[in-house]
Design brief:
Structural class of chain B: alpha/beta
Number of strands of chain B: 5
Distance between the termini of chain B: 16 Å
CATH topology of the largest domain in chain A: Heat Shock Protein 90
Largest sheet of chain B: 5 strands, parallel
Number of strands of chain A: 12
Mean pLDDT of chain A: 75
Shape of chain B: globular
CATH superfamily of chain B: Response regulator
Low-confidence stretches of chain A: 69-77, 322-335, 378-404
Strand content of chain B: 15-25%
Strand order of the largest sheet of chain B: 2-1-3-4-5
Oligomer: heterodimer
Mean pLDDT of chain B: 91
Largest sheet of chain A: 5 strands, antiparallel
Number of helices of chain B: 5
Number of domains of chain B: 1
Number of helices of chain A: 11
Structural class of chain A: alpha+beta
Largest interface: A-B, 28 and 23 residues
Shape of chain A: elongated
Number of domains of chain A: 3
Radius of gyration of chain B: 13 Å
Strand content of chain A: 15-25%
CATH architecture of the largest domain in chain A: 2-Layer Sandwich
CATH architecture of chain B: 3-Layer(aba) Sandwich
CATH superfamily of the largest domain in chain A: Histidine kinase-like ATPase, C-terminal domain
Distance between the termini of chain A: 53 Å
CATH class of the largest domain in chain A: Alpha Beta
Strand order of the largest sheet of chain A: 2-1-5-4-3
Order of helices and strands of chain B: EHEHEHEHEH
Order of helices and strands of chain A: HEEHHEEEHHEHEEHEHEHHEEH
Radius of gyration of chain A: 28 Å
Amino acid sequence: MEYVPVFPLALADQLSDGVIVATEGSLRYVNPSGLLLLGAEWLEQVTGKPLSMFLGPDVISKLPPWAELRRRDDRGETGATMTGHLFGLDGRRVAIHLSSLPILWERGPACLLVVRQARADRNVVDQLLLTEAQQVASSKIRTVGMLAAGIIHEANNTLTAVLGYGQLALRLIPADNKAHRHVQQVIASGRKSSELIQQILMFARPSPETRGPLSLHILANEFLALLRSAIPSWIVVKEEIADVTSPIEADPAQMRLLLANLIADAVHAMRRTGGVLHIQLHDEDVSADQAASADGLSAGRYVCLRVMDSGGGGGMDAREMRRLVEPSATTDVLDGEREMRRSAVLGIVSAHGGTVIVDGSLESGMRVSVFFPAMASCVRQKEGSRFSSSRSLASAYRDQDSGF
Amino acid sequence: MPSVLVIDDDDQIRRMIREALEQAGYVVQEARGGEEGLKRYRASPTDVVLMDILMPDQDGLESILALRQEFPSARVIAMTGGSDMIGIMNFLDVAKMLGACRTIQKPFELQTLLAAVAAEINA
């Protein structure tokens, strides 16, 4: 029997499949994905426990004899693949695909098991993990919301005093006195802060969905003015918002949320390295040919919102975004807040009949393009737009490739 | 001279409002909270009561209710820096339901405050 001589633990820790190492029929090592499958939080909960405690009889009976390594025979077996069931510490019964391989572990013979949930079960468990992550994120957001409400109350009281005393002082200072202008500046700053708080409140305030014709360029310009102050100074913001875009049928509150989530993720990607945050908004005509090669788009006019980062490694890549489109393809437990952001993006876009196209890479930068169908009755030639109305999807991407 | 009772737990804001109202020719009384405000009103009713909502001892909503139960003709202007951003309630809407005649969101311009007080006195 041949043993695989090297077993890289660092690699196993990154795998989304469960990896289990057993010697003499007992567990010695389980990677994080394996711990999830076994319903354990720490390695110590499972090490030393017999394989038969977790693997169903349908798996144990099919394992090659060397798997339990109670006897040292040599039949030239190199491994096996099978399907069966696994039992977690929490009592879950999970359908699995399992592959076994003889390896060397701490200079002795051992058995490596690679465990993957069967697809049908994976959906259920993923959903549970996602729900749990969403609950944690949701609870965190509520707590932050309550703290923010308290801070806003205090800020409003402080601004009341700043504005009030400023206006009282202004009455006492002659208009030609330099101090008069200084106090006017204090009042102006107080008013600006007050407006900023009102804009934040307008964004945060829960409101029933009100969908109707919306000029996204107006909303984007207003909302980006608010968001700009929240973007770190080491990230350069480049905006290319068309002077006019076709109306779309959308809920303004949801569109603000969409923008906030897309920008938050791009900023997250560049939070350590800095870079360029590029935001584009314009009409785009998709031809039948282009639609055939663009997944989810049909021919017609769209309003295209594109948010790009210049890389840094921390954002959402195309693979991660696709996971949301095909939830069954993931076994990773993602950070709750980022998961919420991505779910929000896809949820909003899909609820508005739009399409998300993600490309690029974490290193060179990600480009998230959101296409909303222009309202049929309102599709018209744009006036004064900085973009050509015949600008195509392909040419837009070519431009991006050269400048992004 | 028309009179105003200012009920606010924030000393800075209370004094600022007092000064602005006195400059405009009103007689002003102050109270740091709802209970103290009610006592002062009982002792010497004013034409208008300016009532903050979020206060530590007896909040503005309770105080409006108590004041209006005892003095149905009391004219109250509710004010707050609080928000409804976490979806609990809009304090100023509730204050109106409880009988406040007008509401003012903090921070406000002095002109807005003086106009609201004048409007209630002339109502």
